[in-house]
Amino acid sequence: MNVLVINCGSSSLKYQLINMANEEVLAVGLAERIAIDGSRIKHETIGKEKVVIEQPMKNHKDAIEMVLAAIVNEEYGAIKDMSEISAVGHRVVHGGEKFSGSVLITDEVKKVLEECSDLAPLHNPPNLMGINACQEILPNVPMVGVFDTAFHQTMPKSSYLYALPYELYEKYGIRRYGFHGTSHKYVSQRAAEILGKNIEDLKIVTCHLGNGASVAAVDGGKSIDTTMGFTPLEGLMMGTRCGDIDPAILPFLMEKEGLDAAGLSDLMNKKSGILGLTGISSDFRDIEDAAAAGDERAILGLETYCKKIKKYIGAYMAEMGGLDAIVFTAGIGENGAEIRRDICKGMEALGIEIDEEKNNVRGKERIVSTDNSKVKILLVPTNEELMIARDTVALVK
Ligand code: ADP
């Protein structure tokens, strides 16, 4: 059974075709610049040469049509006919409080997703466009929605409520939701498998450190707290997002800088984080290079970044009443050996001991703590697409 996994953004669409008989990836690709000049698809069928197909795409339907054409292309495609696609799994960012797991997409589900769009105006509308486009082109193929928020629906109320008037939670759903759930779930499960333990017996802190970044406390396989909140802005400092700040800074800046709501949102989401603090870049490779060359703000930026993660590890260790494993994943978590080291450094008294030699690795599943470390430290490359495909199979079977 082949499952097509779609992750649809406002101007891009990532996809993977996976043969679920053996969980083998058949093709991967990215449609870029949808509805912008210079649209193109980068497609790769595993075992064949990569191709770049440049062709205008005026909307997401055009993009899906081109993706499917690439997948069945005689020369560089992966399958002969679209009928070989049994189901489509869609990544959906916000499922609100309605979805604590993946769902088969129906008209009713789409209505709820539209309601959730208010909560994720940048993400849910393009996710829905992807779903609608797929349904038009593949009308008889079942579709499943897999939500970034779902895994965190097990958080207790005391983790997700803000100390705002309770009516605001009831009226607008203002609460913490958490994101990157599919990734936190995948890497915590893999960590348990790697350690040869039952996940129900483990207290794990998962650190998803990519362009967006979040840490989660996974107790017995369930998320009980996470750093992202009402939106993916809360918590850690990220590439361009500020994470936690004193909320009183906002009215202060409105007054001093004359910023309105859109200006503040732009400042906090796009101009802050490691980019804002260092003035160099949002890409951590650039920051590491600048720090190695002695740039003081780059050094400070990395210190600030690591300290914040360390604080959350400590907080979640306290919240769970112990810790068995720390897992690092996503672009920075998988590749940034020095960042992993600096986060863990100084926590030896808490039983957290990284092995510098084992830690000197990129993008591979590996235990990177010392043999004596009470808390195991693991590097686990994330695989959200596989999780989406697995959920899709489970629901359409
Ligand atoms: P996204 O959230 O967009 O999926 P990724 O998980 O791909 O993000 O992570 C992107 C981030 O990973 C970038 O900030 C990039 O700097 C960082 N990254 C990639 N390779 C390295 C590396 N070798 N060292 C440090 N950071 C890296």
Characterize the structure shown:
This protein is an alpha/beta fold and 397 residues long. It has 2 domains: 2-147, ATPase, nucleotide binding domain (Nucleotidyltransferase, domain 5, 2-Layer Sandwich); 196-379, ATPase, nucleotide binding domain (Nucleotidyltransferase, domain 5, 2-Layer Sandwich). The protein has 14 helices and 14 strands. It has helices at residues 60-72, 107-116, 124-137, 157-160, 166-172, 181-195, 249-257, 261-270, 273-278, 284-292, 296-320, 330-335, 337-344, 384-396; strands at 2-8, 13-19, 24-32, 40-45, 51-54, 85-92, 103-104, 143-147, 203-209, 213-219, 222-226, 325-329, 366-367, 376-379. The strands form 2 sheets. Strands 5-4-3-2-1-6-8-7 form an 8-stranded mixed sheet, sandwiched between helices. A 6-stranded mixed sheet has the order 11-10-9-12-14-13, sandwiched between helices. A hairpin with a 2-residue loop joins strand 10 (213-219) and strand 11. Helix 10 crosses helix 11. The termini are close together. Adenosine-5'-diphosphate binds next to helix 10 and helix 12.
